[in-house]
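INFO batch 0412 | record 1 of 1 | parsing
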Amino acid sequence: MIQFFNTGLEVLAAGLLAAGIAQTLKVIFHYIKNKKINFKIFTTTGGMPSSHSAGVIALATSVGIICGVTSVEFAISLGFSLIIMQDAAGLRRAAGKTAATLNRVVQEFVEHHETKPYEVLKELLGHTPFEVFCGAALGFVVAFFVHSLINVEAFNAFLVLISSF
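INFO prediction complete | emitting tokens
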């Protein structure tokens, strides 16, 4: 029998679900803003909310629920989460700003000189602190949803059923 709740499978499911919801929200927000659907957003970084933050905070929250917030496992997962979120709002955001500046410089150069076409650098790499916060809040909520709102007995019975095939 596969045990799902209070295991690493629950932690993994919460993290993946939170990141998936965040990526879906990015597509929805893009549609609301631009009145056109762009499914490529599912595979891009940057934007609102941060799927990296949602995923890692869902992981850390699930570990905290299962192992306790004073456990070594929770300390490790929270430390990992904070590093990922700082990287999203710090280093990757700065890299995106640098890419935007380089794209402008190259575009001005191309306008004044005959050159070969060039590859435009990706500018939306990181997140604003607000996008990171919203992703973290989403991850926190999803972790509690996965842990609390799903019927444990029914879900474990379903897993037993599909594992017997």
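INFO post-check: Residues 62 and 144 are 7 Å apart (CA to CA).
INFO record closed
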